[in-house]
Design brief:
It is a single chain. With 536 residues, this protein is an alpha/beta fold. Helices cover 38% and strands 13% of the residues. The protein has a 9-stranded mixed β-sheet, sandwiched between helices. A two-stranded antiparallel ribbon has the order 2-3. The two termini are 49 Å apart.
């Protein structure tokens, strides 16, 4: 399992590092010479009673550790200056809906100062006003931030006019449009806002608004930066996904430090089953390591980050399906011809784009996914069983209804293979043989996809007590998520100018390069709430 773990929250300035081949070596030292101590010096550290400790030390070989990602050393210190440089180019999007402003303020306080804060709210109107008041007070010392409401009419009109009309819907009982409800839709609004208004930001991160420990948020942001710094595949796009150290629950008056949330347990298991099915359907054997594995451990990672180019290039799902669908989309787009050969590499650390199983050229360039286990326990707002159920059902829906093309068609097509005109066409007998082989392979792949779908239906039936809608009726299939085109399809110049000139809910704080012609003002309400005039 390619999972990177945080060892120290603050490792100091660290030893300056340089890359030598595929390993990181302290500057001024010989490669592989990490210490001036020899084995005899280590013997002096242990008494005879510590024989077990010495055996443990000698039996541990980092090169045998399957959790070490190729090209990344077992242990590395990332200099603070490098982290700060990446954080200074990062925008952190905080989608919120109905959280206590004090809780949101705690989340903001954990975001490193170099980052741009982007608050995307879908709270009711008066609650949003309080959120903006809180944000303006928080940013009074020159902290850059953006805030916008998901119902902003100008943003909806801009999406509708400049390339993403699927993202908007008519308001019931009215003539105007608004951006659809949903977490995924709010995240897409945040991505578009950053890309259009702050194009110098190279990285975009997402942090939930209900986290109750600000220190955890700070670690998450620094872990994002570390993931970008550790990408062993230069030139590839990067996605960093976090696995919490624990998600504590209070049971019988005691804190139970559960390692995995209820929804994550379900979604991770089925994403790995998807990866295993693709391994079975891969005739090249390049996915053999993914068969019956647990490579994917961050399927539901609400805390994740990616390069802006990747964020603009991915198709995105609505609601809570957005995070699991990242994997489904990458497995589909980065699968090579007639197989999912590059897909496991995408899940475990990188893949090369080419023709995928549907015979189309994917939109994505090679992608590296860095999964990082953090140190802080993840405390957040307690959710009821129905909310958890809706989250894992959305994740299963993204798999069930959107299987990668290599598992989703009985007539998988191969991409056209142009031949030089000077060469004669292939003999008919050879072509016929190749076609028969392809048909047989495609049928087996399709059967594996159908078996996976059937297994998901069996899982829903076995969990029928948790599998019903608001009317208590059994739901036989997971919900079908809506899939949106990549944000790159949007005309960012047109979007920026329309939102800038006609906005209703946009607030820009301490962004000298971007000024609104008609700044919003909430001074009267702000003064009543806080007793001070909001900063400009």
């Amino acid at each position: 399992m390619h999972l990177i773990e945080v060892l120290e929250l603050d490792a100091g300035s660290g030893i300056p590092l340089e890359t030598v081949g595929s390993a990181y070596t302290p500057q001024g030292s010989e490669q592989g010479d990490e210490s001036s101590l020899d084995d005899s010096d280590y013997d002096d550290l242990f008494s005879d009673e510590d024989e077990d400790m010495r055996d443990l030390e000698s039996d541990t070989d980092p090169e045998d550790d399957e959790s070490v990602l190729d090209g990344v050393p077992p242990e590395v210190t990332i200099p603070q200056a490098q982290l700060d440089s990446i954080l200074g180019q990062m925008a952190v999007i905080v989608p919120c809906k109905g959280e206590d402003p004090n809780t949101i303020e705690g989340v903001l306080s954990g975001i490193p100062r170099g980052c741009l804060i982007v608050l995307v709210s879908n709270s009711e109107g008066r609650a949003y006003r309080k959120e903006v008041m809180m944000l303006r007070k928080f940013c009074r010392h020159a902290r850059p931030a953006l805030a916008i409401h998901q119902s902003d009419a100008a943003a909806a009109a801009a999406f509708n006019m400049y390339g993403l009309p699927d993202l908007v819907t008519h308001v019931a009982g009215g003539s105007h449009k608004r951006i659809r409800n949903g977490k995924g839709e709010g995240m897409m609004l945040g991505i578009a806002l950053v890309a259009a208004l702050c194009p110098q930001r190279r990285y975009v991160a997402f942090v939930d608004a209900d986290i109750t420990v600000p220190g955890a948020v700070n670690e998450y942001c620094r872990a994002f930066a570390a993931g970008f710094a550790l990408n062993p595949n230069p030139g590839t796009e990067t996605m960093v996904r976090l696995r919490w150290a624990s998600k504590p629950k209070v049971r019988n008056g005691e804190i139970d430090y559960t390692c995995e949330g209820r929804s994550s347990q379900v979604v991770n298991r089925w994403l790995n089953k998807l990866l295993s099915a693709m391994a079975d359907a891969d005739p090249t054997g390049s996915l053999a390591a993914a068969r019956d594995s647990e490579i994917i451990v961050t399927g539901n990672a609400g805390e994740h980050a990616m390069t802006m180019d990747l964020a603009l290039s991915l198709r995105l799902a609505n609601g809570y399906a957005i995070e699991p669908f990242h994997f489904v989309e990458l497995l589909d787009q980065l699968a090579p011809q007639n197989a999912a050969g590059g897909a496991a590499a995408a899940a475990a650390g990188g893949a090369h784009a080419g023709y995928n199983a549907s015979g189309r050229v994917p939109n994505l360039q090679p992608v590296t996914i860095m999964q990082i286990r953090t140190r802080n326990p993840h405390f957040h707002r307690v959710t009821d069983d129905s909310h958890v159920r809706s989250m894992w059902a959305s994740g299963l829906g993204s798999i069930y209804h959107h299987l990668p093309a290599s598992l989703n068609s009985s007539t998988t097509q191969t991409p056209p293979q142009p031949q030089p005109q000077s060469l004669p066409p292939s003999p008919p007998s050879s072509s016929s043989s190749s076609s028969s082989s392809l048909t047989a392979f495609s049928s087996k792949s399709f059967a594996r996809g159908e078996k996976l779908r059937g297994d998901i239906l069996d899982f829903l039936a076995d969990n029928h007590e948790e599998n019903d809608n608001s009317k208590g009726e059994l739901v036989h299939e997971p919900p079908r998520p809506r899939i949106y085109p990549p944000v790159r399809q949007l005309d960012l110049d047109g979007f920026r100018e329309m939102v800038r000139s006609e906005h209703k809910t946009l607030y820009c704080l301490n962004l000298p390069h971007f000024k609104l012609p008609r700044p919003n003002t909430i001074a009267p309400v702000y003064h009543h709430q806080y007793g001070v005039t909001p900063p400009l």
